[in-house]
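Example 3.2
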Amino acid sequence: MDDVAQVTTDPVPPLAGYTVGITAARRADEFAALLERRGATLLRAPALRIVPLADDTELLAATRALAAAPPDFAVATTGIGFRGWIEAAEGWGLGDELLAGLGRAVVLARGPKAKGAIRAAGLREEWSPESESSAEVLDHLLARGVAGRRIAVQLHGAPLREFVEALAEAGAEVVEVPVYRWLPPVDLAPLDRLLDALCAGALDAVTFTSAPAVLSLLERAAERGLTEPLLEALRREVLPVCVGPVTAAPLEERGVPTVWPERMRLGGMVQLLASRLPERSRRLAVAGHRVELRGQAALVDGVLRPVPPAGMALLRALARRPGWVVPRAELLRALPGGGEDEHAVESAMARLRTALGVPGLVGTVVKRGYRLAADPGDKY
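Structure, written as C-alpha cells:
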C-alpha cells in the first residue's frame, strides 16, 4: 500500500503533525496522554528526579526542628508537597508532634490544592490568596508583622530565595521545609536528546511544569556548550509553554518569551498548545488547494500528510517565497545537515511530492530550481 493510500480523511486532531517536548517528571504519563489524545507526537525527557521523602535527610532535620519548637506561622505551597510531608513525618514517628505544633500555628495556603491538603490533615488554614501567588502570601505575612516570629515554609522543589530572604530581613526566623527535592536525572541521555532536538528546531513546542526543570535544562545546555543555540531556538522556532509565571521566570530573565495558561494546570497547558500551535502554522493557497504547514506534516485540503524531515525543510524554504523560484543551491542549504550535491535536493523533492499526494503543488523550473505554485493572494 503506498503512502497516499494510507492517508486518513478522519477529522484532524488539533496537535496532529506537531512534536512536543515534555520535561516533567511528576504526572508525566497523565500529561502525555492528554497531548497524545489531541494528536501530538511526543519527545519525553525528565529534566529532574525526585528525592524519595523517606530518604531525605534535610526534610527529616526540618521536621524534627519544627516538632521540637513549633512555628508561629506555617506556609503550605503545594497540596502534594504538604501531604507528602505529613506522611513522611508519620513514617518517622513524628506525625503527632508535628500536627500538634501546626495546629497551634497560623497556617496559610498558597492555593486550593494546598488548602485541601491542610484540611485533609485535620488542620485549618486561616488565609489563602485568590491569585495562588507566593508574592501575595509574602505581602500578607509582612503586613501582619513577622519580627521575632518562627515561620515554617514548605518549599515546592526549589528554594524560595526571595520569599525567605524577605521574611528574614523583616526579623523572622524561617525554617525551610524541602519537600520533594529535585536533582538532575541519573540518566542524562533522554535530556540530551531533547536538548539536541531543541537546538535543531526539530520540536514545535517544549513544556515545563516547574522552574527547577527549566534550570536543569539550562544547566545541561551550559555543560555542553549549547546555551546560545538553545536560547535562540526558544526565542524563534520552538514555543516554550510553562505552567505559570513562576516556572517561566528563568526563561523570561534570559529574554525568552513564554506562554502559560490562565489556569495553572496541565489541562490548561494542553488547551493552550492546541490553540497556539495551529495559530503559528503557515497557510497557503496552492494550485487550487489549501495547504497548511505543521511541524512534520502538511494539511492538504484538510487531510494530514506526514512529510519526511528533508522534505519538510524544502517545503518551508519554498513557502517563504510562494510563487517564486528558489534555486537548487539555496534548497540544498536548507536540508538538515546540508547536502553534498544537488542530487540530494532532487531526491528529497521527489519524496516531498509523494508525501503531499497531490500533483502540481511544487513545480520544477528547468535549470533554475523549484517553486510553490501559489495562487494569487497567497493565503486562505
